[in-house]
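Researcher: Here's a chain I'd like modeled. Treat it as a single chain, no partners, no ligands.
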Amino acid sequence: MEERIIEDEGRTIKIKRNALGGIEDATDGALPDGETPEGAHSPEAGSENAEDDVEYAVDFPEEEYDEDMVGLTPSQLKRAQEERERARREAEEARDKLIAEGKKALSSLDYAAAEKSFSQALTYDEECVEALLGVWESRTQGFTDDSPFFIEENAEKFARMPKEVRSFILERVGSRLQDARQGILEEMRPLKAAVEEAREARRGALDANKRYYLVRTAAFGIAAVLLLALVGIFSAFLLRTRGSWPVVGMAVSGGLALVCLIFLVVFLRGLVFALRLSADNEKNEGTEDGRRLALLEGEESCLKLVLEGEGEPVFDEES
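Model: Modeled as a single isolated chain. Structure tokens:
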């Protein structure tokens, strides 16, 4: 709010203006009540002007952009839309037909044929709940065979399925899979400790073997380089002296360098083999217990994917 005091020819006029520019109050003894000085705007006029200055923003929804429809005439566009609708109906009919065939095969316990029909139905609609349920019911032979859940590819596909499908299946097999996972974890604990203990025991001997070959490889490598350098030094004196000692020096240095190179190759191969043994020792596949542990870890990771999925778990252990 702005307040001004104007003195004009002995008169004092006190004017208060609001934020809109209109006069909120004017005090002047010479003016009748209710009137405002000439040229001043009343608050009502200011409000009307403010309303006239209001801007309105209108958002129009954008139509879905389709490159295939660009440049078509209205008749061509209508024909293309009709063809799309017809193709969609045909796909739905083919999907429903395959689902019906799969259900018929399930009722006759022909699980292989049922899985084939349901899988073909998914080619028309990847998120069809009925087809997904049919695939897993036939794959697990009526939810009695849990072995498909231990395959990594199947577990990854199962984890990406809709939550309602996973929940429906886990209501029937979740308890068994949870028990299997607990059994695997219990078997893994002592086996993992034994594998790690054996690995640590082998690690000392393997490190000593690695150092053995590393030191000898480095020694013969340095010796070969120095002897080859001597060959070069002796060769520089061939044309500067009449004696035969440069030739003798070159022959001796070259022979010793050749011997060092032979030993260098031998110990280098031993070093490579020692490094490979050390690397294999850090893997579980190096021993029978390690291979068993790797198998259990793979099965446990598959069951974890199945039970917990890629995001929020859908199976409750207490259910």
